[in-house]
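Example record

One chain of 340 residues, shown exactly as stored in the release files.
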Amino acid sequence: MHKAKFILQIGNFISINETHLFMTIRKPKKKTNIGAKKLTKTLKNKMAAIGFYIFYAFAWLISLLPLPILYVISDIFYFFIYIIFGYRKKIVRKNLKNAFPEKSKKELLKIEKKFYHHLIDIFIETIKIMHISDKEIKRRNKFINIDIAKDLFKTGKAVIGVVGHYNNWEWFNNMQLYSKHQGLAIFKPINNKRFEKFMNKIREKYGALAVPMHETLRKLIQLRKEGILPFSLMVADQSPVKEEINYWTRFLNQDTPVYLGVEKIAKKFDYAVVFMKMRKVKRGYYETEIVLITDKPKETKDFEITERHVALLENLIKEQPEYWIWSHRRWKHKKTKIND
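Predicted structure tokens for this chain:
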């Protein structure tokens, strides 16, 4: 009998045509440059470390505050991030204009302002996970039909839960409080390893396992050998790197490259696929409906699973566009350029 588990990503150049004398003169400078670069790199690393620990101390302290007070802080941050600094405002406006060409400037500006408020709320809410109680997170983030996932496990099916950067996806990890099953959160690795470790600690608070995207296949094979049915929570709206673009679709009025990982894994392991439809009830409160995409992935056509979860996310975004992350450079790759 299977054990069911909820398994929630310069060297210096000297031309050979230079004279020996010139090269001799340059050698000490070359060593000095290398030494200077090493020193600069060391200083940058130390400054980055100091910056992170200052951030961590700040995050740890403010996470002790109740959410109503944190939302007041969020409103103050909004003034500086949106009004004063205009964080990625050009990217946000371009994305919104291309996604909703039918909307007026007034409508787009309204969405833009709501988005920035929500963006900072996500930051505050994610930090709050450090000290939020199980009772409060369950009250604020509810799964209204988790029995769908439980029923799939009863039939011997493992599950992939597809999510987007919509509402507060980091709060999905409290799913384990609704079930005896464990979770595994698939994440895309980032360059800042200190911050990555910080985020993974948050993701694993309720017992989930944070797994880098490139290790997903190996982990799932291991779980299968151990007789474990995983629930793999996967963010599916990230922009692939240029070399990994294998499929394009229409998403929010634009040609968009998408990862095929969800579909490939589902077909390889015969996993059921569900879409995690998260809605914001009000500030600080969310509800998630689990929508079945397929429990028979091997019977679906090529790209059918991908098209369905892309469409579900698109429809959700259109309902309340301010809750998607418009500051991402989601359309940095253009189809014509890639094809050339």
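Notes: Residues 101 and 253 are 8 Å apart (CA to CA).
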